[in-house]
């Protein structure tokens, strides 16, 4: 067996042992097809007030600018789909499923660091960096290039027989490996995600205007939520899973096996009025190491007031 095949087999086996669903590998190179697409998306200001998305344009498109001598991008998927008993009921105020448990940044970074250390022990000197939403890396594009799925009309990566309820992470390394190839798009004529989006954020199939997404308004936007969005969020107070929940491929989603992604025991049992009366103490207890801390207590209270139609939460963002 050639060393590249041997190394590749070791990495994929070790990734599975660490709990990753899938591991795919692609050559580290300039993303030629993505360059005009990204430029056009930014020019239309679909990043809203997420100014960081316009930063490091070149680095987003070329991993060799992030890691000296980069040769391979190792893409990994980690399931976060919660078991039925861990899910919030439909009649309460809801947070996106990815944020139920411990912040994925911590969980995945630990696993990736272990994988890189194991590679260095098994293979020898391997230089690389781990990435979990922590740098300008186009994770869905790399995962698609390495055959882990296709990018659907809702702009999420979708994997046959699995769906899309997973995190994507990368290891960019200076090691030559065997590379996987992309798979075809299986969205077909389905437009369920486009039709279901209450804020029309999916402006065209495969194009999501980030500045219209419920997740943007409830997590990224620090200002008042615009008046014209009133009544469009349903009961989503942090993030939104609508375009994934309606996707037919997610009928294949199976509960994750990661204990750290389990929610606080109280989370599935809180009613809408419990959320309206949430104290700072309860917030801190429920979301001690959670991604919900991104919006903070005051941010979550703003969102709760907005989705429950309390007038002081509704403003406009005109300056």
Kindly describe this structure.
The chain folds into 2 domains: 3-83 and 101-173, 3-Layer(aba) Sandwich (NADH Oxidase); 192-315, no CATH class. Helix content is 30%, strand content 14%. It is globular, with a radius of gyration of 20 Å. The chain contains 11 helices and 12 strands. The relative contact order is 0.17. The chain has helices at 3-17, 34-43, 57-61, 104-123, 139-145, 192-196, 214-220, 242-245, 272-276, 280-286, 296-307, and strands spanning 22-27, 72-79, 94-95, 128-131, 150-151, 157-158, 166-173, 202-204, 207-208, 225-226, 236-238, 314-315. Keywords: 4Fe-4S, Cobalamin, Cobalt, Cytoplasm, Iron, Iron-sulfur, Metal-binding, Oxidoreductase, Queuosine biosynthesis, tRNA processing. Its main location: cytoplasm.
